[in-house]
TrEMBL record:
Protein's name in the database: Transcriptional regulator MraZ
Subunit structure: Forms oligomers.
Keyword Aminoacyl-tRNA synthetase: no
Organism: Mobiluncus curtisii
Record-level GO cellular component terms: cytoplasm; nucleoid
Keyword Repeat: yes
Gene name linked to the record: mraZ
Highest classification ranks of the organism: Bacteria, Bacillati, Actinomycetota, Actinomycetes, Actinomycetales
Any one GO molecular-function label of the UniProt entry: DNA-binding transcription factor activity
Length: 167
């Protein structure tokens, strides 16, 4: 099927980390809180994959994307292939890179979400942090719940267009 599972130890417990073609697939939804200094404690399930570095940037739908450093490097390599004369590519690159922040989580698994990214995504205290395949997305919890309620209505109809015959 093109995937394999590897056991990853987390403390005294184990969880299964899905990989496709050697790359981690981030899965699951968590509802942590942002502290007063703008720090987020990464969900335990994501910490090992992001321990070597994380890049935070503006995401579509006014959220924050969190990429493992290697995944962001691959994304940037693809983005560099677009010609400088392509206006949409230039604009996308500007938005993606201008507010980006690269950092290494501290010993407690915390990352600092810069004020500009918190403002862009409307992040207050209650968050939704979830795996979205190649990335982690960080949303304001209320905004996420509203988005999810609307998106779930279209889920079954759209699945046939995106994955015909598979679901």
């Amino acid at each position: 099927m093109g995937y394999n599972e590897n056991l990853i130890g987390i403390g005294s417990k184990f969880s299964v980390t899905l990989r496709v073609k050697g790359k981690v697939v981030f899965l699951g939804t968590y509802e942590p809180k942002l502290d007063d200094k703008g720090r987020l404690i990464l969900p335990a399930r994501f910490r090992e994959q992001l321990a070597g570095g994380v890049v935070l940037t503006k995401g579509q739908d006014h959220c924050v994307y969190a990429f493992e450093t290697g995944e962001f490097q691959a994304l940037y390599a693809e983005l560099r292939q677009a010609p400088l004369t392509h206006k949409q590519a230039r604009n996308f690159s500007r938005v993606l890179l201008s507010g980006a922040s690269d950092q290494i989580p501290d010993k407690q698994g915390r990352i600092n979400i810069p004020p500009a990214l918190r403002e862009y995504a409307g992040l207050d205290r209650d968050l939704a942090v979830f795996g979205a395949g190649s990335r982690v997305e960080i949303w304001d919890l209320k905004t996420w719940n509203e988005f999810l309620a609307a998106a779930e209505e279209d889920f079954s109809e759209v699945s046939e267009e995106i994955l015909p015959g598979l679901l």
